[in-house]
Amino acid sequence: MTSPIAGGVDCDLHPAVPHLTSLLPYLNDYWRDQVTTRGMTDLVSQSYPSNSPITARPDWRPSQGKPGSSLDDMSKQTLDVFKVSHGICNPLYGVQMVFSEDMADAFCRALNDWLTKEWLDRDERLRGSIVIPVQSVEKSVAEIERCAQDRRFVQVLMLVMGDMPLGKRAYWPIYAAAERHGLVVGIHAGSNYHNPPTSVGWGSYHIEDYVAQAQAFQTQLTSLIVEGVFARHPHLKMVMLESGFTWLPPFLWRLHKFWRGIRMETPWVDRAPLEIVRSNIRFSLQPIDAPPDPATLNRLFDHMQSDELLLFSTDYPHWQFDGNEALPEGLSSDLVRKIMIDNPLATYGRLRHGATKETTP
Amino acid sequence: MNIQFRDRPEPASTDVAKTSDIKTSHIKTSHIKTAIADCDIHPARATKTELYPYLAKRWHEHLETYDKRPYHGMMEGPPYPKAQPNASRRDAYPPEGGPQGSSLSFMQQQHLDPNNVVLGVLNPLATGQGIRNHDLAAAICSAINDWQIEKWTSKDKRLKGSIVVANEDGAAAAAEIRTRAGDKNFVQVLLLSRNVEPLGQRRYWPIYEAAEEAGLPVGIHAFGFGGNPITASGWPSFYIEEMVGHAQCQQTVLASLVLEGVFERHPTLKMIMIEAGFGWAPSLSWRLDKTFKRLRSEVPHLKRPPSEYIREHIWWTTQPMEDPERRDHLFQLIDWIGWDRLLFATDYPHWDYDDPSRVLPAGASDANRDAFYLGNARKLYGIV
User: Fold this and answer.
1) How far apart are CA A22 and CA B197, in angstroms?
2) How far apart are CA B20 and CA B4, in angstroms?
3) Would you place residue A292 in the very low, low, confident or very high pLDDT band (cuts 50, 70, 90)?
4) Do A200 and B295 touch (CB under 8 A)?
5) Selection from A95, A54, A60 nearest residue A77 by Cα
6) Which among A170, A349, B34, B62 is placed 20 to 30 Å from B322, CA to CA?
7) What is the DSSP letter of B47?
8) Distance of alpha carbon A101 from alpha carbon A74, whole angstroms
9) Which CATH superfamily is domain B33-381 in?
10) B232–A212: do the CB atoms touch at under 8 Å?
């Protein structure tokens, strides 16, 4: 086992909203009334069914309630174990699935306030991601503006499968707002299920959807690069969360080859895709889709041709590894330090500059 | 990568530029004497009505009136405009006219002879696949199969055809396969990667049953239309996203085939992933295996880790060749996949054609090189 070092940053933690009713205190009268009188159900996405083995490691599954719903458990099971200085909270509550932008807006505001009060205020190590009502770009920008005042929010969070490819120009005001406030844009596995979860239609199984997350990340990277997001926002950092990364080298070989062949279609892409990835894109460590032998993994790292791309993550409480083996075997101590400390700090500007505790306005 | 920025050449008699192109391409490849297989050649029709002799009269009128109605909106051409006319090499227009790939004699002269292609597998595109009227789909597919024999495989014994089937109509597709079974003009059944549903779904099972029964591999060529956006987040903007995206489509197609248990049901079925890359195969296999460890209770019909089905049942054509900066990366990748599983292909006459004299870097053993260029294809297709 490769030993973790103290003071790292866990870039992918999933605090769970116990139930839609947990957000009632953070909703206004109208939406409280809507939730109760209409008998709205809990917003659990098919991407992570509560009892699926993927959704929680067996020894991290609480005797009752959703995995990841207790700060105490999170603290004992992961923050303390890996002695992290910071952990970034990425709530995966299914607010992206709703179709009304007004409803999505209300739920996102409530979710972000809930995260602040029930998690960030209660553990100084924790940092937050702003969940945005992506159903409306205008409302998303407003929510970023509102939450960005609290410097404990270090990232804007979007799902990898949504209504439109993420590079589309309609989304650019979101990226401009993130860049303006020194926020990273995190793209996390998961779908709003407004499109089929694969590019060839609806499969039958949960396992199929989960495997397909990797392909969705690939198409999003293509979109973000060829639409010119990083030509417009050269300083914007994006982090692919729970994406896997062993697909990256062959994906880039293919993208590079076609870019060389037909770059006349997207002339604003002024750097090779590999260079754009090196300067603007990062990946969370887990899951590691590779065989457990160190030789293969080190060959894969060599194929990536950079030791700056990976950011430590446990993906708590999702089941990606057992015991304390968050780091794969065979990593050099230099690489451990890069993955756990240097790379996350270089990526998340707001972690570098520290944060003072503030209340959400 | 073959890309040129000249205009479409004038008709043959005045076409000086094209003649010089042909000479140049002869010079580039003339030192290649080794016999090769080309497992992805695209034959085209010279005219719109070239298929009519193989189609019932009612379909001529139907096509004139309604044309094909594909699972996308364009009556003419593809939804994403290609980078070149017909996505093909500008130097590949036959001297007698017609689109690239529509002349046997010019294909022989420009490609088969100079490159010493001893086995060429034809993969007709723009057939009856991916259109919404399933009777029309079946009629066109059957016509394409007759046309392949008459225009191509009976005229040049190096060429072998693919049985094209009405992909969304399992019963009609299976019937077409059974009709052609045993016909040595054909070496595989051809499907495209993009269909109404992922290819592991049950509506496609009759195709696999008939193919296995006929002892034919099923080739799955990148492309096609089934109505689904080419990303899981909707329609992208650019042709390059479609081109790159075929690799993602193929990954989910292969995952579907494995996870639905197609290879458990058909233990002798062989499949070929055509023109969708192979670089992604290891990472997909590892991801499938890792996820399978957690979620196998959902798919109890699978008896083995997914990677084992892939290793046993899947072959890959090489074009567009994975092209890392460092050749040791390419060789490590091929080691993971298996040198016995790659089938060389050029994609002639398409623009992203791979030149056989350049595609495999120095450093492969003679045995691996022979397998890559010819041996694997001969063995898989049973061509001695």
Assistant:
1) 38
2) 14
3) confident
4) no
5) A60
6) B34
7) S
8) 32
9) Metal-dependent hydrolases (3.20.20.140)
10) yes
Q: Given pLDDT bands bounded at 50, 70 and 90, which one contains residue A345?
A: very high
Nearest to A95 by CA among A104, A86, A87: A104
Residue corresponding to tokens 């597709």 = B173
Q: Locate B319 and state its tokens.
A: 């074009």
Q: Which residue of B has its CA nearest to A290?
A: B286
| Cross-chain CB nearest to A205 (options B199, B236, B259) | B259
Task: Evaluate whether B210 touches B269 at the Cβ level (below 8 Å).
Answer: no
Name the residue of chain A whose CA is nearest to B324's CA: A253
Q: Cβ–Cβ contacts within 10 Å for residue B23, how many? A: 10
**Sequence ranges of the domains in chain B:** 33-381
Residues B323/B355, Cβ–Cβ less than 8 Å:
no
Q: Do B228 and A199 touch (CB under 8 A)?
A: yes
3-class DSSP assignment, residue A155: strand
Of the candidates B107, B185, B193, B152, the residue with the CA atom closest to the CA atom of residue B381: B185
What is the distance between the alpha carbons of residues B38 and B116, in angstroms, rounded to a whole number? Answer: 10
Q: Give yes or no for a contact between B137 and B185, defined as CB atoms under 8 angstroms apart.
A: no
pLDDT band at B31 (very low <50, low <70, confident <90, very high): low
Q: How far apart are CA B301 and CA B240, in angstroms?
A: 38
Q: Report pLDDT digits (tens) over A233-270.
A: 999 999 999 999 999 999 999 999 999 999 999 999 99
Do the Cβ atoms of B323 and A257 come within 8 Å? Answer: yes
H/E element, B306: helix B306-313
For residue B98, is it left (φ>0), alpha (ψ between -120 and 50) or beta?
A: left
* Structure tokens given for B143: 């016509």
- Chain center to CA of B382: 18
Q: Dig out the tokens for B333 from the structure.
A: 């990748």
